[in-house]
Amino acid sequence: MRGPRFVITGIALAAALAAGLLAAATPGSTATHGAATPGAATHGAAARGAATRGASTHRASGPAGTGTALQQALDRLVAMPSGPPGVLGIVQHGSWHTVYRAGTASLAQLRPPTIWDHVRIASVSKAFSGAVALNLVSRGKLRLSDTIGRILPAFPRAWHRVTLAELLQHRSGLPDYITSKGLALRLQRAPRKHILPIQLLRFVWHDPLQFEPGTRYLYDDSDNLVIAMMARAVTHRSYRYLLRILVYQPAGLHQTTLPAGYRMPHPYLHGYELQPGQPAIDVSEALTASAAWASGGIVSTEADANTFIRGYLAPLFFSRHTQAAQLRFVPGDSGPPGPGTNAAGLAIFRYTTRCGTVYGHTGNGPGYTQLAAATPGGADSLAVTATEQLNTRSNPELLAALRNAETLAICDALAPH
Q1: Contact 374/380 with Cβ under 8 angstroms?
Q2: Cβ-based neighbour number of residue 12 at 10 Å
Q3: How far is the C-alpha of 404 from the C-alpha of 318, rounded, in Å?
Q4: Of the candidates 349, 256, 351, the residue with the CA atom closest to the CA atom of residue 305
Q5: What's the pLDDT score for residue 15?
Q6: How do residues 123-132 score in pLDDT, each as one tens digit?
Q7: Number of neighbours of residue 392 by Cβ within 10 angstroms
Q8: 54, 48, 161: which is closest to 99 by C-alpha?
Q9: What tens digit of pLDDT does each residue of 207-222 get?
């Protein structure tokens, strides 16, 4: 899910507040994992309380102070008016990594964020559905030219000519369920109630295509739901099973799940909605993850997200021949836009910055904004999470500050060591 078009957030939160679901902050874990990030320096009070700042250094930062500049950028971000209460990043070069953090994991507890805290990775989940689909392409279970009509003939006839490649690259033209009035009303009535994937698509089942398939790019959350359903159809396995067998196990992801409900596993970074002059609202468990499913429902940790993106670029989950097809790009931003100039491949984006180019995916949903990216081959990587939904519509200054920090993380990852 992404910020600019996720118009249901305010409605769902209002409904949740009216129902008393968010009347009190959700209790957080009492576990602290400072030992997982040794060497972290505490520099005193930060915005909204005694937040911990500083980098946990497992290697020397890159030259020209890129690590120092990144830490300062994160500190400035959490200190901005209505800025995220916490920001966490990991930068890895080969087997050596540095963890950067600013602010707090929870406004109720004021403990430092760690790379073992769970977060909602939102649209970074789209890269996971891409990994599943491209694995099946490499094994001959799917073809990039396969159409919705061939694999899912019961779907609307207007959708039938859309190919798997067009879905993966957001050139399908499918109506986007995430902006539908039906979903907004459903979440207003019952923000935490489970929704089946087919019910999500039925909110736009009878809507016309937005454009002729293959003729343009438009970021679309319906695409990844259909991708996962195509994978289920050709394997006769659940999507959760496919994630576990094809992605989690090969990559060694032990803290990554696709939940059906609204609860977060402990420990976790609390995600917030902040408005000027208003108290922060903990939205970590405001909505059911099933409302995003394969498009944005995965819960992971910063450590696992970094491990995944390295494997995604290795490539660990599919063949180099398939990766060559994946890395053919058209102009297009991820959701929300990532650092530098963006271009869209098959379930992956290219981010061209002043320090170099990386490949990955952004994420954006209630309470969280992410980036996970790596170089081809996966040797250099980064993952960054802010505990607030930042987008170009409601808080562009904060998103710009985060994007600056992400660019500095790219500079740190790509600097000679």
Answers
A1: yes
A2: 25
A3: 32
A4: 256
A5: 44
A6: 999 999 999 9
A7: 14
A8: 54
A9: 999 999 999 999 999 9
In degrees and rounded to multiples of 5, residue 253 shows phi and psi of -90, 105
Secondary structure letter of residue 20 according to DSSP: T
Listed in sequence order, the residues at least 6 apart from 65 whose beta carbon sits closer than 8 Å to its beta carbon are none
Instruction: Find out whether 365 and 344 touch, Cβ atoms under 8 Å.
Output: no
Q: Within 190-301, where are the H helices?
A: 197-202, 221-235, 239-243, 249-251
Beta strands in 251-355 (DSSP E): 272-273, 281-282, 299-301, 330-331, 341-344, 349-353
Which residue in 370, 340, 268 sits closest to 1, CA to CA?
370
In the block, tokens 């540095």 appear at 98
**Residue 27: cis peptide before it, omega within 30 degrees of 0:** no
Per-residue pLDDT tens digits for 34-78: 222 222 323 233 344 444 446 554 444 454 477 899 999 999 999
Instruction: Return the sign of the alpha-carbon dihedral for residues 10, 15, 20, 26.
Output: negative
Give 265-277 pLDDT, tens digit per residue: 999 999 999 998 8
Give the residue from 4, 3, 325 showing the smallest Cα distance to 137: 325
Predicted confidence (pLDDT) per residue in 355-369, tens digit: 999 999 999 999 999
Q: What is the CB neighbour count within 10 angstroms for residue 109?
A: 16
> Which CA distances in Å does 20 have to 26, 150, 305?
12, 46, 33
